[in-house]
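Summary for the steering committee. One of the milestones for this cycle was to obtain a three-dimensional model of the protein with iron/sulfur cluster bound, which we needed before selecting residues for the alanine scan. The sequence and ligand used are listed below.
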Amino acid sequence: MCPETEELKKEIESLVKKQDAIILAHNYQRPSVQDIAHHVGDSLGLSRIAARAESEVIVFCGVRFMAETASILSPDKTVLLPAPEAGCPLADMATAGQIRAWRARHPDAMVVSYVNTTAAVKAESDICCTSANACLVVDSIGDNREILFVPDRNLGHYVGEELDRELTLWDGWCPTHLSFSPMDVAVCRREHPKATLMVHPECNPRVLQMADKVAGTSGMVRYADGCSSNEFIVGTENGMIHRLEKEYREKKFYAGTEHFICPPMKLTTLSRIRATLRDMKPEIQISKETEHKASEPLKAMCSTGT
Ligand code: SF4
């Protein structure tokens, strides 16, 4: 490690103590950011850790909707987002106004929002879900209700297929996951014939059909642990490989493709974390009304026992 990085890490450590902060990093963050974080995980898991933490200051290394979710679940804490311009293109494909307009045309329908939505969209939803619990959440809704699944059409399509249920799908997608093509799968299968292919449900349905396992990021961590295979092709953002390699040093993990990168996730750097802790900004600000309304679908999700 270069002396500058070592110095930066020491400064971050001392600022963490001074501000009584905790650093949370999503699985897709740069390895250097994952390595200084107190916890690395998926967006909802990290938000739950934030809510339980004794620290009053949360530095959320991820994209905006994740920090918003942490803030909604920890309304009395200060949630800081080192890269405030880090939006999620998928989350930005649905707006609160669009959901309200759709609801007006379908007054009896339920709106199920993937956690990859803005606080404003959550505030217009009935229940949230993650990639891990989406099937359980949808299954908890009576068969006779029309369901709008927002915003990821690929995850919604997967849930519909798994439950053999018709869902109305919002036309949103994750550009990063969609870039992993059936051709990429064919190439990495050829290069690593013994490897097990794990794929995120935000990928193209044709890619999902080719997978050995469909799972969100936490599901991939658990699956790699329990699986007898020693080699895995990782069908999600490449930051995940660092997390898996650290957890399971004896196993091998290969990128589905070299271009499996989410650019907004890479905007957080050690120097930006240092600046955030030093200046105690940028802070996530959500109006009390939106915060309250957005907490309801998150609570509804938790009440399904997931
Ligand atoms: Fe959004 Fe996709 Fe990036 Fe996740 S990987 S933050 S869904 S753009």
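Key point for the committee: Residues 65 and 212 are 30 Å apart (CA to CA).
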